Amino acid sequence: MRIDPDPIIKIFTKKVVWLLVAIVYCLLIIVITPESLSSKNQIVFYGYGFFIFACMYYVLQTHEKDVQVSSREETIKKFFICLLIFSFALLLITRLLPFVHYGATPLGYDTGLYVKNMSTTESLEVTKKAFYLIIDSLIVFGMTPTLALHFIVVLTQILIAGAFYVLFRSITSPSRFGFAVTAVFLFVSSQTQFLAFWWMFAGQMFSASLFLITFALLFRWPILAILTAAAGMLIHSLPFIGFAVAIVVFAVFFLCKTFLWEKASYRIALLSSVLGLSLFGNIIYWNWQIVSVFLFQQIVKLDILFKKDISILYPLLVAIFLVLILLVIGFFARRRFETKSVEKTIFYYSLLLLCAFIVVVLLRWGLVSDQLRYFFRHYGLASNYTIPWGIPAVKGLFIDFVQFRNLTFFILPFFLFGLICPFVWRSKLANRQYPNKFLAISYIMLVILFLLSYFPFIRQHRFIIMLDLMIIMFSVPAIYYLIMHFTKDRLGKLLLLIFIIVFAHRIMITAWTQPPQIYSEELQELKALATIAESNAQVMTTNTRYTPWAIGYSERKAFGPGWEFDQWSLYKWMEFWHANGDSADLKRLELLEDYNEPLYIFVGSSEGRGNPYYKLFESNSVFEKISAHIWKYEKPLVNK
Amino acid sequence: MFLKLNSLIKQNKKLFAIIFSLIIFIVLAFIIPGSFLTGVSVIIGTLLTLFLPGLFLIMILFPRVEKIHDLGKETAMTGRSIDGVERIVLSLFFSITLVALCLSIMRQLGVVFSPSIVVSVIVGMNALTLIGAIIRFRKQ
Fold it and tell me: Is A345 exposed, middle or buried (0-12, 13-18, 19+ CB in 10 A)?
């Protein structure tokens, strides 16, 4: 009797693959388990991770055999339409809830700075920033600056959800619609994204939405991706960093693959061209030194950027430029590219995208060169920043990686599943295709964003927002399969309902309980200073949390610890905040003499009433209490 | 009564859409701080800046509408047809992109903006894209 070995090998291979997946999954679960959890909770998390894995294994096994999907098509379609409507409703409710609960300004740390900028340095007449140009256009039509700002911030949330929808509708996947709706729901229920909204990183969130739509258009209508990428980069460049690097890696990989691996003749041609061009570049440099000096010193201004003479590198740079030009021309000239394929199309447009990035960088060269110089001065690390108390600001005022892990632990097992099992992306109905290009770029972006947000790079914490978007992307397939499975019967639907309610409940609670940085009564007091304080008065906040608000709304020269116009060092501030003893209050009064003009001191409710300086303001007659949180300080006549 | 209303809405979808939009428009105009006229100006300005240019552009680029339904239709993307949600989302994105790029380029060219220039630019952008959409529509 002859036995056909194929099925046995298949089963064996399948088992081995699953075993490997299980091992890698378990290892990753151990690695990502938040250390802040107690050992008991860690075990609960392992159990949760194991339960999700077992569920996914079962779901994927049965899904393979599930032939009834088409008969449930209508139910599934209806379910996803309902989930889409629910997600957008939840998005609006959670994003508007803080306004209902806490009044007109519940968001942000630097709302005041934005408002101040709109009337001064970034007003319509002078601003060069695309973000302010959009907001100023709305102000022209009658919106108040605060309303325009908040409108844009809420709009960015709708835009990101919409961009996720378009992105997943644009790639080949087991279900374009199902994936798209799942992604929207995950975004809406993400606590990290809500906190980013709450901190009001308006520019970054705006640009993040344009990054997502650029990514989507790359697979759909690439020429339009160039426009959205350029607009996004003009608004805020941070969200595009991971994407730009991924595009470069993809383009270089594709070029290498084509030129180096596919045909030996190309390899020889390429190597001889590189050698020839290096020689040619050297000849250009030595003979027409003025050309390269003009190119790198006058146009690109590399010397100013690096703050040192790097002319020794010019021949190499000339050679690299020429090689790149040759590569691109050679690539476009080759006959074999006359036949079109998705990969090549994406490659062409990747190059165009990079051109758009370069154009935008050149348009904003002043700003970019400043940032690059700053980056190189500290070797890219926020921890190398010279002023220790400025490090948190350099890292970006947002949650740190540990908090981020705690907030996302609910979907981390799903994310891991999407990450280590690429076959969940395979479309069974479209010739078992993978969304190869989407996955390639996404994996590269994920790695880059993980590195940028895990290690203490400059703006480390801001990259967490982008990393969260990638985690949502990779969690989508696993959750989609669970949804598909649960819609089979009534009990499953009930479980699904509980699952959705749990996610929605968490985000609703967060939206309801997240207090504002400043309460509306406190803000009213700051606004009142604009009318009651002398024109030469200064406003001091004893906590940096309130400084941007004072700057934006008091209409007077305002400062806080470490801000412009602050005349104290950290040591003096420490003395002011914490000094105790008999002479402590005298010392505080002595310190305050550094400020000459009438000084209004704002102490917010978050600082507590037990502070020594609060007690001093309440008890000493030098301080005149003009409202619940503001004292007026004037030097005693003797000192004057 | 509810069924009757439902069937009436189904028969006069466009009419009800216009009435519904008008109601929302008026309610919003009242809600927005300032006088009623300010509210109207804000709503029209927002639509002109953040929605309409993109919508007209989308009408030029993606003339066909696809239904929200693709389960079982996992064939290669044509890119030419989009569903209703995508149409709204892309309209917003392209409006923002057009406004941001147009104003940034003008600024780079040395134009000093005043409110009247910005309004002219935005109205002009809407007019141009509308003309394009009409031409595309008539060709079809």
Answer: middle
Q: What is the mean pLDDT of residues A234-258?
A: 81
Residue B123: its pLDDT value, please? 92
Distance of CA B140 to the CA centre of its chain: 20
Asked whether B60 and B133 are in contact (CB, 8 A), the reply is yes
Please tell me which of the candidates B72, B76, B99 has its beta carbon nearest to residue A134. Answer: B99
The type of residue at A312 is I
A147·B96 Cβ contact <8 A: no
Of A69, A141, A219, which has the smallest distance from its Cβ to B46's Cβ? A141
Write out chain A residues lying below 8 Å of B94, CB-based: 224, 227-228
**Residue A175, min C-alpha distance to chain B (Å):** 6
CA of B112 vs chain A CAs: smallest distance (Å) = 6
Mean pLDDT by 10 residues, chain B (140 residues): 68 74 74 74 89 91 63 46 86 94 86 89 92 85
A552: tokens are: 């934006």
Neighbours of B14 (CB within 10 A): 7
Q: Name the pairing type of β-strands A623-627 and A630-633.
A: antiparallel
Residue B54: its chain A contacts at CB < 8 A? none
B82 Cα to chain A: minimum distance (Å): 9
pLDDT at A174 over 90: no
List CB contacts (< 8 A) between B46 and chain A. 138, 141, 143, 151
3-state secondary structure A84-130: HHHHHHHHHHHHHHHHHHHCCCCCCCCHHHHHHHHHCCCCCCCCCCH
Q: Are strands B64-65 and A557-559 parallel, antiparallel or unpaired?
A: unpaired
B92·A158 Cβ contact <8 A: yes
- Quick check: helix, strand or coil at residue A639? coil
Separation of alpha carbons A610 and A98, rounded Å: 29
Burial label for A4, CB within 10 Å (0-12, 13-18, 19+), is exposed
Backbone angles phi, psi at A485, to 5 degrees: -70, -40
pLDDT of residue A253 exceeding 60, the answer is yes
**Can you tell me whether residue A433 is helix, strand or coil?**
strand
Pairing verdict, β A538-541 and A557-559: parallel
Contact between A604 and A546 under an 8 Å Cβ cutoff? The reply is yes
- Cβ distance A137 to B103 less than 8 Å, yes or no, reads yes
Closest-approach residue (CA) in chain B for A209: B93
Longest dimension (CA), chain A: 114
Query: How deeply is A67 buried, as exposed, middle or buried, from its count of CB atoms within 10 A (0-12, 13-18, 19+)?
Result: exposed
Number of helices (H), then strands (E), belonging to chain A: the values are 28, 5
For residues A593 and A287, the model is more confident at A593
Of A209, A212, A81, which Cα lies nearest the Cα of A154?
A: A209
Q: Which residue of B has its CA nearest to A426?
A: B74
pLDDT in tens, A364-415: 666 666 666 666 666 667 777 777 666 777 777 888 888 898 888 889 999 9
Among A68, A137, A217, most B C-beta atoms within 10 A, so best to mutate, is A137
Which of A96, A133, A185, A211 to mutate: most B Cβ within 10 Å?
Answer: A133
Residues B122, B49 contacting (CB under 8 angstroms) = yes
Question: Does residue A531 contact residue A513 with C-beta atoms inside 8 Å?
Answer: no
Least Cα separation, residue B106 to chain A (angstroms): 10
How far apart CA A578 and CA A587 sit, in angstroms, is 11
Give percent of chain A with pLDDT exceeding 70: 74
Contact check, Cβ <8 Å, B92/A155: yes
